[in-house]
Amino acid sequence: MTVPVLRRALREEVAATSLRNVSRQTGMTSAGLQKFIEGGQPYTATRRRLERWYVLHGPGRHQAPSGGGALAILRLLVQDLSPARHRPTLELLVKSIEDAYSSAQLTPPGWVGEVRGELGGVSV
User: pTM of whole model > 0.90?
Assistant: First the structure.
């Protein structure tokens, strides 16, 4: 999930509802959210919080995910593991999905390759 995609989705949601509503949804202060929307770069923990918001409340929550959206969903699933376990577990999850599609003789969804690329191009 890229920062510009997050920023655009947050701007749209703030315009449709309110800054206070969206800050409550993200678990951020209104000032912190406004700073991000205006161009501030988030810390890693804040970015994960915003990705979680995007997965749960963002505009694409009822559609097939993009690579960035799928990666945000997968990161949400592994968030309670130690940070050292995140990448290996994400790679295993993607590999399991690829294997399941291969066993069913189906082409994996496009987001699988995108996630692999976002994980650093490692073949998983």
Answer: no
Sign of CA dihedral 95, 96, 102, 107: negative
Enumerate the domain spans of the chain: 3-43, 67-118
Closest residue by Cα to residue 71 from 33, 110, 40: 110
Q: Which residues contact residue 85 at a Cβ distance below 8 angstroms, ignoring those fewer than 6 apart?
A: 78
pLDDT tens, residue order, the chain (124 aa): 689 989 999 999 999 999 999 999 999 999 999 999 999 999 988 998 998 898 888 876 656 677 888 888 898 889 889 999 999 999 999 999 999 999 999 999 888 998 988 887 544 3
DSSP, collapsed to helix, strand or coil, labels residue 37 as helix
Instruction: Give 95: exposed, middle or buried? Use CB within 10 Å, 0-12, 13-18, 19+.
Output: middle
Q: What share of the chain is helix, strand, coil (3-state, %, to 5)?
A: 70, 0, 30
Furthest-apart CA pair in the chain: how many Å?
50
Torsion angle defined by CA atoms of residues 21, 27, 33 and 36, in that order, rounded to the nearest 10 degrees: -140
